[in-house]
Amino acid sequence: MVLPLVLAGVLVPDPASAHPFGAPQRIEIAGEDDDGVRVRWVVGGTDDLSMLGVALGVLGKDRVLLDGAVTYEPADAEALARAPEFARYLTDRIAVTQDGKPCAGRVDVADDLAADGATVLFTCPGPVGTVTVTSRMLTDLHEAYRTFASGPDGQRAVYDGAHESADWRIGAGTATGPRPASTRTVPAAGLERSVRQLLAIGAVLLAAVAVAAGTFWYRRRRRPRRDSRNLTSATSGADPAQRKHPQPKEMS
Q: What are phi and psi of 215, to 5 degrees?
């Protein structure tokens, strides 16, 4: 009885969290003119937009069900896209620095936030070469959220609660041609950790099923022996003389 309760504590989401093990969110990093960096964010699951709206106070808390889930409605994305709280959230959770100096950001939200996401356009102090991009999107809702990032020349990284920043080689202006890969990329350790968590939960479930099946089989094997011993004991407890010379019943 304890094991299902433990599993329930592991698997039931907190009311303040969404679904971090669903489709991953992503960001796309690109240069913009000589001194600009464009970071486009696209949500992984539409229900994450609903949960973010609740967390920012744009949507009512009554949208969260008792099990912590929310049901996405198209109006959620529209309300979130118009909310100044969402614009502030983007510039707070996504940042770009150049040589340790912050780049000023300006938010541009697409008409269809759920499908096309939102873009933060950063203007840096000088021509862009290598910049540090920080992304902490949704990790304040749940630390298990992951962000898959892509940039120029096939550069890639994975952001999570333990890896929030990575260096990206952008290059100034519209110059093209081969450029070195990112000088510091974020390993996909967070994604592997999520997989290990799911495998651990699966192993516990399999172990519980094996224990239950073994207990059932053991009890079925012991029951006939116990019944046989009880029958033998009852027979041996009778008077031997009565077994050899049973007394006839009196007739009335």
A: -65, -45
pLDDT by residue for the chain (252 residues), tens only, comes to 444 433 444 443 443 445 688 889 999 999 999 999 999 999 999 999 999 999 999 999 888 887 777 889 999 999 999 999 999 999 999 999 999 999 999 999 999 999 999 999 999 999 999 999 999 999 999 999 999 999 999 999 999 999 999 999 997 543 333 333 333 333 333 334 444 554 555 565 566 666 676 666 667 666 655 555 555 555 555 554 555 555 555 554
Q: Closest by alpha carbon to 81, among 108, 44, 45, 47?
A: 108
Backbone phi and psi for residue 168, each to the nearest 5 degrees, phi listed first: -130, 135
Distance CA 210, CA 201 (A): 14
pTM above 0.70, yes or no: no
User: Using CA atoms, how far apart are residues 165 and 187, in angstroms rounded to an integer?
Assistant: 11
Burial class for 164, CB neighbours closer than 10 Å (0-12, 13-18, 19+) = middle
Provide CB contacts within 8 A for 27, sequence distance 6+. 39, 40, 41, 42, 94, 133, 135, 137, 147, 148, 149, 150, 159
Give the count of beta carbons closer than 10 Å to the beta carbon of residue 172: 15
